[in-house]
Specification:
The structure holds two protein chains of two kinds. Chain A is mostly helical. Helices cover 77% and strands 0% of the residues of chain A. Classes of the chains: A mainly alpha, B mainly alpha. Chains A and B meet through helix 1, helix 6, helix 7, helix 8 and helix 10 of A and helix 6, helix 7, helix 11, helix 12 and helix 13 of B.
Chain lengths: 319, 316
């Protein structure tokens, strides 16, 4: 188990290195350079000398290869992602300030998705081909079809038209007022959770149906166990294992969704930072976010793979 | 039933030969049979198929169906509420929202079909070679697919579109690449299972060229998942494109993209003219819902192996 985890961790390194090379060089192909943008916005005289001074000050006068190695060694040796081009602040600080916000939004969304999808999925399976099942399946297919950005727009628009209410946009620190803090994330979290819940619900239903047809379930019924015990203790426990895989696969979708939700509900998370940096062409931030997100997703997937060992005694990692 | 079509998979072909059931009688070949079963067994799928056909019809004949062009401006009738004259109201420039939705269907179709077609070609090329040849090539390509898929789609899209600039061709290019690589996994899975069949070994042993085996034996037998993949991609692309356009990174403004209508027109004027924010949503929802239902039914009918436990307790 330990050896497996270590092997998987080591396998991550080349993947992330390749990703870092691609990200670093592709980002620098963005048309229109940051220099032009800065010169036009800061009222510098747009002559050759001030231009060259600016390029030198930003460290953009060295060859790309040199810039790359400086950047990647900074990250590996002391987690230094460089400095932002505009504010000249450390990139890691900028991202660190936004990361918890996006993370909390992601957690709220995922929790909501699971609270909705697993019970509906289980119910749909044990009452197959009934009204409840059809309602559950219709719900999941609708949840998949409704674009979350539209739902988000309606949640901002309709309550304010009807009751003059709008979702809170200032974020209170969790430590000061936990409830106020969570309230900010409820609306976007529910909308994002809804679109995630569709896939999880379908998977839960499918796996439950599969498990419910197994012999040991028939044995459990034959022993005279109650439906509650059979379904929750015997069936659900085994049905959830593949569902966890699906949850892992949804992490990237979840992160993508937070970008849209942050945009609609004006939440200053990483998604907003990314969109701002793209428009101001602040390369170090874009590459930093990309690498951190990629590493995060890879680590979460690794954790999920390792989870199997705890959940399913049949899984052995060592060959 | 000797005239069983060759596109059926082996099991059902054998089954039909031994015990022809009344429903299993071929009606007008495999395609006719598919639609017969779609409309007699899969009502939701048939419903989805009708929505899909309506979308295609509206998209292809947008110029004739829409009362006006998508960029016809009536400066006097700005932000008009829905009325007999403007069925779904007008936007801030005085353009008819209904006409823009109809033309938007055309844009959605062009992008959805181009992306699905290109991405399927990429998926098949990657999946078939990786699955058939196996070995080191398979391992490397699968690890690369892993690496690629650990980055969220939307983040890749935002970054690449910001490099290439927004526009229809850029969106088609990036989405094709994204879905092509992700879909190769499914094609590979199908190829790996088909490869184990004895007829492949037989073919190899009589010295058939690899290219011929791939195109004549492997490809026809993985057609079912490929067709299903294509259909479900259409819906995914429509959602993804509208999401991108919503963020202002898709098809640029004058073009009537459903997502874009929610982004610029919809959001800045939504308190004055709520219909701008409301109307494009159902358009996307209905279309995606229809295609998904059709795709699900198609998967059940064409490719029983991919079906998740749709059966009953009795294990039918």
């Amino acid at each position: 188990m330990k050896a497996y985890a270590l092997r998987r961790l080591l396998a991550l390194i080349p993947t992330l290195l390749i990703a870092s090379v691609i990200v670093f060089f592709v980002i620098r192909l963005i048309p229109g350079s940051v220099i032009d943008l800065m010169l036009s916005e800061n009222d510098f005289s747009n002559d050759a000398t001030s231009r060259e001074q600016l390029i030198a000050a930003l460290g953009l006068d060295t060859p790309l290869i040199y810039q790359y190695f400086k950047w990647i060694f900074g990250i590996i040796v002391h987690a230094d992602f460089g400095r932002t081009l505009w504010q000249d602040t450390p990139v890691i600080d900028e991202i660190w300030a936004r990361l918890p916000i996006t993370f909390e939004l992601g957690v709220v969304s995922m929790l909501f998705a699971l609270i909705v999808s697993i019970p509906i999925g289980v119910y749909s399976a044990i009452r197959q081909e009934t009204i409840g099942d059809y309602a559950g399946r219709t719900f999941s297919i609708l949840a998949l079809a409704i674009p979350s950005f539209w739902l988000g727009t309606l949640v901002v628009l309709l309550p304010s038209l009807w009751w003059g209410w709008s979702p809170p946009i200032t974020i209170v620190p969790f430590t000061e007022a936990p409830w106020e803090n969570i309230k900010t994330y409820i609306a976007p979290g529910m909308i994002l959770g809804l679109s995630l819940s569709a896939v999880t619900m379908r998977m839960t239903r499918t796996m439950m149906l599969e498990v419910l047809r197994q012999d040991y379930i028939r044995t459990a019924w034959a022993k005279g166990l109650t439906e509650k015990i059979v379904v929750l203790r015997h069936a659900l426990k085994n049905a959830l294992i593949p569902v966890i895989t699906i949850i892992g696969l949804q992490i990237p979708v979840l992160i993508g969704g937070t970008v849209i939700m942050e945009q609609i509900f004006v939440i200053p998370g990483m998604g907003q930072l990314l969109l701002e940096s793209v428009s101001t062409r602040d390369y170090p931030i874009i590459t930093g976010i990309f690498l951190i997100v990629g590493t995060g997703v890879a680590l979460i997937n690794l954790l999920i793979d390792l989870c199997y060992g705890f959940l399913d005694p049949k899984v052995r990692f060592d060959k | 039933m000797v005239s069983v079509s060759t596109t059926n998979n082996d099991d059902s072909a054998v089954h039909e030969k031994i015990a022809p059931e009344p429903q299993a009688i071929q009606r007008g070949g495999p395609i006719g049979n598919f639609f017969y079963r779609l409309f007699t067994e899969k009502y939701m799928g048939a419903f989805g198929f009708i929505i899909f056909i309506i979308l295609l019809f509206v998209g292809i004949f947008a110029q004739y169906i829409a009362p006006e062009g998508y960029n016809t401006i009536h400066p006097i009738d700005r932000l008009q509420a829905p009325s007999a004259n403007y069925w779904l109201g007008t936007d801030q420039l005085g353009r008819d929202v209904f006409s823009r939705i109809v033309h938007g269907a055309q844009f959605s179709i062009i992008i959805a079909f181009s992306v699905s077609a290109i991405s399927i070609v990429i998926s098949v090329a990657l999946g078939v070679t990786s699955g058939y040849f196996g070995g080191r090539f398979d391992m490397w390509s699968q690890r690369s697919v892993d690496a690629w898929m650990s980055f969220p789609d939307l983040i890749i899209l935002i970054v690449v579109i910001s490099v290439l600039g927004p526009g229809m061709w850029q969106v088609i290019f990036v989405l094709s690449l994204l879905y092509g690589i992700a879909g190769s996994r499914i094609v590979r899975g199908a190829v790996v299972s088909v490869k184990e069949n004895v007829y492949i070994t037989a073919s190899q042993s009589i010295g058939t060229s690899t290219f011929r085996i791939l195109t004549r034996h492997i490809l026809p037998n993985v057609m079912a998942p490929i067709i299903v993949l294509f259909t479900t991609r259409l819906a995914a692309v429509i959602i993804a494109e509208s999401g991108l356009s919503f963020l202002g990174l898709g098809v640029p403004p004058p073009e009537p993209s459903w997502g874009g209508m929610l982004s610029l027109d919809g959001r800045s004027y939504m308190f004055l003219a709520p219909w701008l924010a409301i109307v494009p949503g159902p358009a996307i929802t209905i279309v995606v819902y229809g295609i998904n239902m059709f795709g699900d039914a198609m998967r059940d009918l064409l490719d029983p192996r991919l079906r998740g436990g749709g059966g009953r307790y009795s294990g039918k």
